[in-house]
Amino acid sequence: MRRWIWGLLVLVPLVLTVVLAQWPRPLRVEVGEFNDTTIIKNFFTPEKNPTETFRWAQNGATIVVPTSLLPGVLRLRGDVAPDGTQVALQVASNAQINLPAAGDQVMLHQYWIYVPRDGAWGSTTAIKLRTTQPGSGLEDRAISFVVTDLALGSVRSIWRWPPLSIWLVLALLPVVLTLILQRSGVPGAFWISMATVSAIAATWALQPMWVQPWVWPLLGLLSAAWLWLVWLSWSREHLTGLELALTILVVFGALIPLFEYIKFTDYRSVAATFHWRHWPLWLGLLALALPRLQPASRRRVWFGLAAVLLLYAGFLYSYAFVKDYADDFKVLFRGPRAFLQGKELYDLEAIQTNVLSNLYKYPPFFVLVMGPLTGIPFSPAIQLWRGINLGLMLLSALILWRSSGRPLRSWSTVGLLVLLALLRPLYDTLRYGQVDLILLFLLALALWALVRERWSIWGFCLALATVIKLYPAFLLLEALVKRRWRGVLGFAVGGLALTALSVLILGWGVHWTYLRDVLPISGAGTSWIENQTFNGWINRLYTERIALVPITTAWVRWLTYLGLVLMTGLTYWRTRRMAATDGFGLWIVALLIVLPAAWMHYEAILVIPLYQWLVRLERAPQSQPWSVLVLYGLGWALLAAGNQWTFFDRIYYGPIWSILMSYKLYGLLLLWFAIAFDPSALVDVPTEQPALSASAQRKRHVLAR
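Below the sequence we write its predicted structure tokens.
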């Protein structure tokens, strides 16, 4: 690259930060709504009248405003109660403003208060409410002051200059990012770096109060990722392709735990630092030493890492059994139990009010699955359910291993252990009593059938998964792409047979209710943070309410359909050149992207495509392109650790924040591109084939003739 290009990389984000800092976004807070708690502190719980929500102040009540907006004018809508109380605002360091009382009755007034600048850019300024003369205490309030909304607008004054630390970060960030992308062989490294750093600069300039608390943990996270990528790229020639992939899994599986460690851990506490929950972080650091060890020493280190991973997995999954509380399982358990006791399976009124609330919405067939557990109390039922699902997870791993044809003592088996220990959706679905491990088991059986070219069994496994949870029916496209009509027939016959069994046992009425009243509204999208699909990304982008409520806006629905068509077409285009087994893995990733709503625990089924990648690496004679390995590594980093509460604190921080909150969706997209453009997944790449049975060999010989 020319020198002036490097100058642009450094100069553009800096200029953008300074320019945007001169037009800060005005602050507006509806008091009592879900996003007010970072602005107002020590107020009573929200109350509501017919027109608005409000809060009463208590002792120590404080209004916190971003210093980047100052000097400015604070518009406070509220009032002092007419009980003789005198309330003052302590503004900045020494300015005090007395608020006049309402008079004979409580009325809402507008208070316009000038707030000078008192602090560094990116910090906050506290405005304290205190009682200078106590009154009779209307409604037994500590401070008789009610506030319903507030707004802060800046006053044009001197130029606002971001602090030196921000300049330093924005100067170094694009250079380091460009070098990493160039080293990885990623095309358009300059433009990717420019867009990324400009977005960070714009966010920092427009919303410094929201961004500042996250800056250093995120910079630590990104810096670690870049340094690890550089280290691994320099050490690549010392490792086999599969060893490098395993190292990437362990190292990048520690990225989000690293963020949590930086942001939430008290580093001064040795006990907290070496708590077993931080083991993935220390394992990742240990794995960085692997490339510089001799092969024999690497095997010993991997044996030690595997032993620690087993111990970590034991702690983690045993923790899932600690508490009986699980809202998800409560729905799965109480719906079938009520039905078997002669009550309605579906609460139609509640479902129509909010189809995404904690209500039973599964197909009636699931009553046959859950029915045997409904005869025992809730607490032992959920523990038994967790035990069954843990067994199904381990059985799924066994089926995947047998399907691969790899020996037990192989690097891919170690990789499977890494997946089971570090993929957080597996733990979440077990902890909350969901059904995703059942689906993982059925899809693993379907993959086993694909390896042996038994498409009818594959179709039946898919049908059984579909009558439990509808969305696996999308995977039938694999049979249509490959024109394996036995798979379609197996799905159709299996679906009809299972549905007929359900109707025979449970009756037609409950099925008709499901088809007529529940199914048509079950596909609603939502802005809720856990919905990590294309639909969730769109909804969070345009709404300021991040809540578990359905959003059925027409244009969002049509954009969701467009995304479905595009992703389906792209997946069809790539899977035509793939073996059926590898194409099945790509369809699984596409499924989680195109659904209107897919919670993070749905991603438990990603064990299948990730393990397929490791098996391909063990068979393929050539190493993968570094760019493909980076896609796998970054996708895994976003998908492996964390859930909806890792970055979300129930507060809306603006549209750019909303884009960042879809990090699991970006992990899915990275994984999709990694598989779609993985040379080892294409049918024209020679690979070591798994051992076939005698009947399969005779069948292949006949087909060849």
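Residues 685-705 have pLDDT under 50 and may be disordered.
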